[in-house]
């Protein structure tokens, strides 16, 4: 059963744009880990939420897919993940919010994997 992992990041006000850009660049490298399902890891930001207050100050988000809970645990325990978080995140963060969930079997096709969505459509263009 697919597990979706979401994290929102908020940095302290004195953290530079350059540091944030490095963090995002390093975080995106985690998509190459075998425990990330089909390399499905997306990092986005800054927030374009309107009104911006609804973002509650969170600047960046990560969304990744894992084949099951064990793969998510492997991702969290990996040296690469530890390096990124201990070097570029934890010493500089103001806050973060993590939310993980298992996708219901009937929703597996909605996870956006290539070929699945188009095969569900009644016609293609």
Automatic annotation (TrEMBL):
PROSITE patterns: S_R_A_B_BARREL
Signal peptide extent: none
InterPro entries tied to this protein: Dabb, Dimeric_a/b-barrel, HS1/DABB1-like
Domain Stress-response A/B barrel per the UniProt entry, residue ranges: 3-101
Subunit structure, as described in the record: Homodimer.
PANTHER family, per database record: PTHR33178, STRESS-RESPONSE A_B BARREL DOMAIN-CONTAINING PROTEIN
The name this protein goes by in its record: Stress responsive a b barrel protein
The organism of origin for this protein: Coleophoma cylindrospora
Lineage per the UniProt record: Eukaryota, Fungi, Dikarya, Ascomycota, Pezizomycotina
């Amino acid at each position: 059963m697919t597990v979706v992992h979401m994290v929102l990041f908020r940095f302290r006000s004195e953290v530079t744009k350059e540091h944030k850009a490095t963090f995002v660049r390093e975080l995106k490298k985690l998509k190459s880990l075998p425990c990330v399902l089909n390399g499905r890891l997306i990092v986005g930001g800054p927030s374009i939420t309107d009104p911006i207050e609804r973002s509650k100050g969170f600047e960046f988000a990560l969304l990744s897919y894992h084949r099951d809970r064990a793969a998510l645990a492997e991702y969290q325990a990996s040296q690469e993940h530890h390096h990124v978080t201990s070097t570029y995140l934890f010493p500089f963060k103001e806050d973060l919010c993590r939310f993980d969930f298992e996708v219901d079997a009937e929703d597996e096709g909605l996870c956006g994997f290539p070929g699945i969505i188009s095969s569900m459509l009644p016609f293609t263009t």
